[in-house]
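Troubleshooting log. The previous run stalled partway through. Resubmitting the same two chains, unchanged.
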Amino acid sequence: MKTVIPVDLPQNQYDIKIATDGLQYLGAWLSAIGKSGKVLLVSNPVIFKHYGDTAIESLKAAGFDVCQCILPAGERYKTLRSIEKIHDVAFTNRLERSSTMVALGGGVIGDMTGFAAATSLRGIAVVQVPTSLLAMVDASMGGKTGVNHPQGKNLIGAFHQPSLVLIDPNVLATLPGREFRAGMAEVIKYGIIWNEDLFDQLEQAQRLDQMRYVGQALLHDILKHSCQAKADVVSQDEKEAGLRAILNYGHTIGHAVESLTGYKLVNHGEAVGIGMVAAGAIATAMDLWPQTATDRQLAIIQKTNLPTKLPENLNINDILPTLRSDKKVKAGKVRFVLPKRIGAAFVTDQVTDDIIRSVLEEMF
Amino acid sequence: MKTVIPVDLPQNQYDIKIATDGLQYLGAWLSAIGKSGKVLLVSNPVIFKHYGDTAIESLKAAGFDVCQCILPAGERYKTLRSIEKIHDVAFTNRLERSSTMVALGGGVIGDMTGFAAATSLRGIAVVQVPTSLLAMVDASMGGKTGVNHPQGKNLIGAFHQPSLVLIDPNVLATLPGREFRAGMAEVIKYGIIWNEDLFDQLEQAQRLDQMRYVGQALLHDILKHSCQAKADVVSQDEKEAGLRAILNYGHTIGHAVESLTGYKLVNHGEAVGIGMVAAGAIATAMDLWPQTATDRQLAIIQKTNLPTKLPENLNINDILPTLRSDKKVKAGKVRFVLPKRIGAAFVTDQVTDDIIRSVLEEMF
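Second attempt completed without errors. Output:
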């Protein structure tokens, strides 16, 4: 199975290739988009052990001169220090403006490699080879790159579009179940905010909690619909001036939950799942979305075996100030993405603290 | 005297305002381009002592909420560490996407503030208020931002256009003579590569080595012609795909001289002056430029009291490998900008090591 999704941006056009065994064609496809010369491959030790050889052999076979930077795995290493390590390898190996960085890993590796490429020689090409479901359907596309700052997640960053996104579903074979479910949270998001057909497919599936229950055909469809949704939204609003903000559905409360639990207890996808439950309930509390829709969303999240409750030790009094420190704040007002029907969402700054509080109180 | 030079880029339009006493209008002009809310002013201790109060009062009078980050002066502090300090102040003060950074200083402050703005919240607005002649005619325009890496100058960086460039010639009153002459090197460059009228004006001037000999009227003309030249070139080639490379006239040898002397003995403008002498001689050696033109260029550089010889302790055997580590290298070939007549230049990778060596040997 192979699907190519073109992404059309004013100054950047690139393809998202979804292809079984695609990793073997990394070098050939890089050549096909006109790249040659030096490649810096960035990965983490676990992913590199599984897929590093395949990637490097493919690149070398296509004539690339490959160097590598292996960074420790985990969100807590998503810092400017790691970017410095990538820069060190890049400049010691004399990368040129025509060189390419390849991100082989999950969202953390993708965000960091993208940012390192954005800030090397004032911007060199980056190719995203996501290895987690979350990165495949979200982080690898759209050009958001960056690292965390002690004051908040992704505060340091830049927009830098990839030259190619290569998604090989095979690499999900080694993805831990919890990571798979985390990625499914973003898939469910696209069903709610953009594609009712995707939502229906998810609703009809027996189980969504492990890859082996999902099956190759549905997985390919999930990847295709999710990537197309993201490509549609990003094409219409590259720099998040308006529409693109709907991709943050579930992320307002989600980011606060991640931040307040120190990015440890709850992972990003789980936090987004919790955030979607909250956003759905807020929309229902404001009479913008029927209770039945909130229930249908909840059923899919439960079928994925994602948490739907707030972590027990969380204090609601901490959540509201944390929301205000989010970078999506505009003139001090917290902006929420709320569903208006299944397949469509909108952005509002009209959610009161009282509503947020009463919804969250029901979520323990 | 007041001149406004519009810069037209595909996705960015902004003005360069050259105005006596313009610093007093910083706040008003920021409002005029639609800015409001928080401003982070970045400066160094010397400049801040002279002009910080005027800038801050102007911003506050226009209703801005101002915080500041004062960084030590000097090229050796142009590092990722300084960027982290700007980020810390920015995020501690909860800057938002609609906030603005203002760079009040020379090229180092301008490059760092621009890069910090480029990498904060994936890009916020920056206003350049250059206080050195070099920054006024070069670094503050065109959107090149960045910091140095142990492997080379400006290797870490991004393109990020300013929202406004405010040039107040009054602030040059406190500029040391050596810094003034360094800025004149870039002015002379524009005469050679772009504007024959500017070259003629410089040729007719009695002395160019100190501001008080230049006078207000000629200074305004110099600023106007230089900024217009840079705006012309950058508008035609924002991302340095082709034409923009001619702005690197004198910079190929210049960067090597700076790098090999540890960025201490020779400043950037002086290095560019030396680089222009070398590039002129190379063009003459290759029969591309008459000896008389090389002599006329040399006379203006001498009249500015800029060095025209290589530092004594420099070893020619070190220069060639250093040229190859420059980020302008493409497929391993060193690219030179050479003059073809006064007012026009071109880029070539056809300069042989033998020619470089023989020209440099004559420059001790």
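Takeaways: The first helix of chain A runs from residue 26 to 32. The longest strand of chain A covers residues 152-159.
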